[in-house]
Amino acid sequence: MSDDTALKRAYTIDTEPFYLDSGDEIPLFEAAASARLPIMLKGPTGCGKTRFVEHMAFRLKRPLITVACHEDLFASDLIGRYLLKDDETVWVDGPLTRAVRMGAICYLDEVVEARKDTTVVIHPLTDNRRTLSIEHPPALRGPLLRLSGAG
Ligand SMILES: Nc1ncnc2c1ncn2[C@@H]1O[C@H](COP(=O)(O)OP(=O)(O)OP(=O)(O)O)[C@@H](O)[C@H]1O
Ligand SMILES: [Mg+2]
């Protein structure tokens, strides 16, 4: 199994989460998904928003990546960042990038709590552009620090 397939499996819901619909939210979600439109869910705590998204991910056979948004969440927490690994810097996808790459549903829980710089990242994904821009500073593309054998 390739790494991509294994990752996709890890985010796939295998058993149907029970969801009792209260209106036409299921066909609405399906229509939005086929038109690649984002959806905003609003409702009091416990009304079934999370369960609905889980149910729809199962129904649409799409992986589901959930991000709990809060005021300390930065754009780089969503997109990804370079991290040091051995003597190299390696790019590590954030949950939003991972979701885009694998065609997953990305559920931004409590998105109203998110900082402005994180919502700026989400705009080009949710408007007509449907793209996620990742800026890799050229200086960081290759090995940044050589730690081994230093001294
Ligand atoms: N329509 C529904 N069908 C089936 N179960 C439901 C439904 N609505 C709520 N539940 C039940 O209520 C529980 C809480 O729902 P859920 O976690 O989806 O709420 P929420 O709207 O995401 O709340 P919060 O805003 O606190 O995150 C679920 O785990 C599920 O057991
Ligand atoms: Mg919830």
Written overview of the protein:
This protein has 151 residues and is of the alpha+beta class. The chain has a single domain (3-132), classed as Rossmann fold. Helix content is 35%, strand content 15%. It has six helices and four strands; from the N terminus they run αααβαββαβα. A hairpin with a 2-residue loop joins strand 2 (80-85) and strand 3 (88-93). Mean pLDDT is 87; it is low at 140-151. The structure holds adenosine-5'-triphosphate (ATP) and magnesium ion (MG). Magnesium ion (MG) binds next to helix 3. Residues 18-20, 43, 45-51 line the site of adenosine-5'-triphosphate.
Kindly summarize this structure in a few lines:
The protein has helices at residues 3-10, 25-34, 49-59, 75-79, 95-102, 116-126, and strands at 64-68, 80-85, 88-93, 105-109.
Please supply descriptive tags for the structure shown above.
binds magnesium ion, 151 residues, two-stranded antiparallel sheet, alpha+beta, binds adenosine-5'-triphosphate, two-stranded parallel ribbon, 6 helices, Rossmann fold
